[in-house]
Write a structure and sequence with these properties.
The protein has a single domain (13-145, 187-237), classed as Undecaprenyl pyrophosphate synthetase (3-Layer(aba) Sandwich), CATH 3.40.1180. Helices cover 44% and strands 14% of the residues. The protein contains eight helices and six strands; from the N terminus they run H-E-H-H-E-H-E-H-E-H-H-E-E-H. The protein has a six-stranded parallel β-sheet, sandwiched between helices. Helix 5 links the parallel strand 3 (105-109) and strand 4 (137-144). Helix 2 (27-33) packs across helix 3 (38-58).
């Protein structure tokens, strides 16, 4: 019998659950329900991130992708975006030591040029400081959009054609996969969305073509080992056919 925060690693191997991607939704609603300022919902959400990372490490998941900030989030109220960026910057400073202590390699995906120079510098420092770690790969999608990712990939392919490195007739699905922000990363097996919404919200559109999807009403700050374990148990019960 498995404990609440550990699963049988043989099941993980059998089902090939290597890469879990999570749409972390419900921080603001969690705060509103409790009569708290919205930023406290995001602070509680960070605690949920810590729990999720620890669970992934204990259960030997190779890649954990977290949708932290979409390109559309930029159009929220200016004060909200500003406070989120300040929180993001502070936590990034705090976490580098923990990432190295736990052998975590962090990778950011998204349009980093949106962020100010200080935050861009911190992001690069976090990536470079953990680049030699060979444990959990933690992908943070920040100012990210699946459509943006595909468009940027197409631009790279066009550039290769213009330089004579690629012929148009040589383009295959793998050609695009190899120029997206997740190149060299294991395919997404399982997508979890919290917060009760039933949509993908422009997250890893190309990468989740054959991923299993799981939706829960649990708001992100309340996401814990029990909810994560329950979701994975559902994954175990499914038969993946990849369209065949």
């Amino acid at each position: 019998m498995c404990s609440i925060n550990t699963l049988d690693s043989r099941n993980l191997l059998k089902k090939k659950l290597r890469h879990v991607a999570i749409i972390m939704d419900g921080n603001r609603r969690w705060a509103k329900e409790k009569g708290k300022f919205f930023i406290l919902g995001y602070q509680a959400g960070i605690k949920a991130i810590h729990r999720t990372i620890n669970f992934a490490i204990l259960n030997h998941i190779e890649v954990l992708s977290l949708y932290a900030f979409s390109r559309e989030n930029r159009y929220r109220p200016i004060l909200e975006v500003k406070l989120l960026m300040q929180l993001f910057l502070k936590k990034l400073d705090d976490e580098i030591v923990n990432f190295n202590r736990n052998n975590i390699r962090i990778k950011f995906i998204g349009d980093m040029e949106y962020f100010d120079h200080l935050l861009q510098k911190k992001i690069k420092l976090a990536e470079m400081s953990t680049i030699k770690n060979d444990g959990l790969i933690l992908i943070i999608a920040a100012n990210y959009g699946g459509q943006w990712d595909i468009v940027e990939g197409i631009k790279k392919i066009i550039k290769k054609i213009e330089l004579g490195f690629l012929h148009v007739n040589e383009i295959e699905e793998s050609t695009l996969s190899n120029v997206l922000s997740t190149k060299d990363i294991a395919p997404v097996d399982f997508v979890i969305r919290t917060g009760g919404e039933y949509r993908i919200s422009n997250f890893l559109l190309w990468q989740i073509a054959y991923s299993e999807l799981y939706f829960t009403d649990v708001l992100w700050p309340d996401f814990n080992d029990y909810v994560f374990k329950s979701a994975i148990e559902v994954f175990f019960k499914r038969k993946r056919r990849f369209g065949s």
